[in-house]
């Protein structure tokens, strides 16, 4: 089996916020097909780190390097923590996903556009609900629609900030099944910020634990077995 391509390399990465050191000299390689879970208590810099990965923030020191020639910010799909649903602006799921194609709503879609959207909706198990209004959909369906948005540009990596937050157990399970299938079958790299231990244990190939005092730990599931981990 060929060596997996490294997509992002974090080199001696350090970051502070409001004079608090979040992490210092963080070194990490994120490869194609990884399922990386970023864990740690609130305020340890998890969301800040994914902003650094997407180059939306500049680190205090160190580098975020995109190492694959075919990989750039456009090849990263992002699912935010907060779902902003405007009930006064009714969108069906097809229209909602199309927003990511053009960053605005246009009155027509090409055949190629519609294929991209239908493929994304199918991957998140919403192909039979494409005409449903987003505002009338369940929390789990809304979250899957956000994942479909992230998929519409055929990304090599998807970064998700607490994607199961506020969902019931059934919806959590479905979201995680979809992400795992993307990782295993499509070799999409998944980077997940989470406070859900079960999601980490069942799905991660790599775990990064931020301790909040500048230190961090990198490992696999054994990291959870050998430590009193606070989520």
Automatic annotation (TrEMBL):
Keywords: ATP-binding, Nucleotide-binding, Transport. GO terms for molecular function: ATP binding; ATP hydrolysis activity. It comes from the Bacteria. SUPFAM superfamilies: P-loop containing nucleoside triphosphate hydrolases (SSF52540). Residues 8-231 form the ABC transporter domain. Belongs to the ABC transporter superfamily. PANTHER family: METAL TRANSPORT SYSTEM ATP-BINDING PROTEIN TM_0124-RELATED. This is ABC transporter ATP-binding protein. It comes from Xylocopilactobacillus apicola. The lineage of its organism: Bacteria, Bacillati, Bacillota, Bacilli, Lactobacillales. The gene is znuC.
């Amino acid at each position: 089996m060929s060596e997996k391509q490294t997509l992002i390399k974090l080199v001696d990465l350090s970051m502070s916020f409001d004079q608090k050191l979040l992490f210092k000299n963080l070194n990490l390689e994120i490869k194609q097909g990884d399922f990386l879970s970023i864990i740690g208590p609130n305020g340890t810099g998890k969301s800040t780190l994914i902003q650094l990965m997407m180059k939306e923030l500049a680190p205090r020191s160190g580098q975020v390097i995109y190492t694959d020639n075919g990989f750039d910010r456009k090849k990263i799909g992002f699912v935010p923590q907060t779902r902003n649903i405007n009930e006064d602006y009714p969108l069906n799921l097809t229209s909602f996903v199309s927003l990511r194609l053009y960053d605005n709503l246009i009155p027509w879609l090409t055949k190629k556009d519609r294929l991209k959207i239908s493929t994304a909706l199918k991957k998140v198990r919403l192909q039979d609900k494409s005409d449903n209004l987003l505002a009338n959909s369940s929390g789990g369906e809304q979250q899957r629609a956000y994942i479909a948005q992230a998929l519409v540009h055929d990304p090599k990596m998807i970064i998700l900030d607490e994607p199961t937050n506020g969902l019931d157990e059934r919806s959590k399970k479905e979201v995680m099944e979809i992400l795992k299938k993307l990782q295993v079958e499509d070799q999409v790299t998944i980077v997940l910020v989470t406070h859900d231990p079960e999601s980490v244990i069942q799905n991660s190939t790599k775990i990064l634990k931020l301790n909040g005092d500048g230190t961090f730990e990198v490992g696999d599931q054994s990291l959870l077995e050998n430590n009193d981990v606070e989520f």
